[in-house]
Design goal:
This protein has 14 helices and 8 strands. It has 343 residues and is α+β, with helices and mostly antiparallel strands. A hairpin with a 2-residue loop joins strand 5 and strand 6.
Length: 343
Amino acid sequence: MNPAMQSPDDKSYVAALRALIGPGLYAADLENSPLIDLPVVHLLAGTDSTPNAKARCFIELFEGVVTGQLVKNDRTAAEMLFALDNWAGVPARDRRVEVARLRDPNWTWESSYRKEPLERDLTMIFRALVRGGAEAKPARGGIDSGQTRNAGEALLEQSDFTPVSYTTKFAMPDVPRFWNDLCLTAKRRFYLVGGTNKSWFGKSSEQSHELGQAITRILLGGGTVKIVSRGDAVVVAQTKHFFDRFVFDPARRDGQQASLQTAIDDQRLVYVTVVHSNYDAVISDDRIVLLPIPNTPSFRNEALVLEWKLESGYHPFMNYLADIDRTISQADPVGLDARVANG
């Protein structure tokens, strides 16, 4: 019998799928999940593959099953549950609320969906994974050849994820507009990962008002804003001052502070600090601009800048989005309060 057609212990695999809901598919610790031991994953990746290779292969399989086998609300439910496509980066709390409403407008996650209805959806997705495995082809060279390469690597090699590259952060046409528009045009997602973020939060008063208005618009529209910086006292003070003066003060004046506080409580507005980051990045909706950090500070202005969009660079975009979300989940949060001025 084809290994992909075997019937493993459904219950344990469904429980493993349930564990992916909180972090989402891309941020989950798949290398330690029983899901990478599914027969179809072994078939595709090769039995001697590393846990990382199997995890990448499982992601490829999962994406293909959701887009190729699930339709209409079943597909939307899977995307909501596992933070795929437009739901990538959306907090688990919001995804849970929406998937319950998708199945029944009168349902809530806690009282209606999270038991039997969720179990049915997870079982449906698991069975789709098994069906998808029925058509799976072994990794090149045969499963036990010892020289196979995992299917995820092969697929990545065959795909063109070449980024748009700029020789420096000043090399693109209309430099100020390029960077400003990353926030000003964002509708539902704006992530900023930097050292000091001084070029964002140390702007002129006029530019800061414009940036603050854009952040407020994103949050009031149900979107997400996440900021990562170094933990230096001066950097933290500058960032908090920006939010208090250009986001929270106008909100208090306009009676919108409760809505912004809800965004903070729901973790749609998050500010954390880290000791070190291997790259700076800006994510604007489905677009990421990445700045690999040079070894010497004096080289910073000459460093390469890379850009991907979701439709043309799906895997790089999702990989970095997941990495940033993991970083934020493990970092030190900085308290923000839309209701009280920061002194």
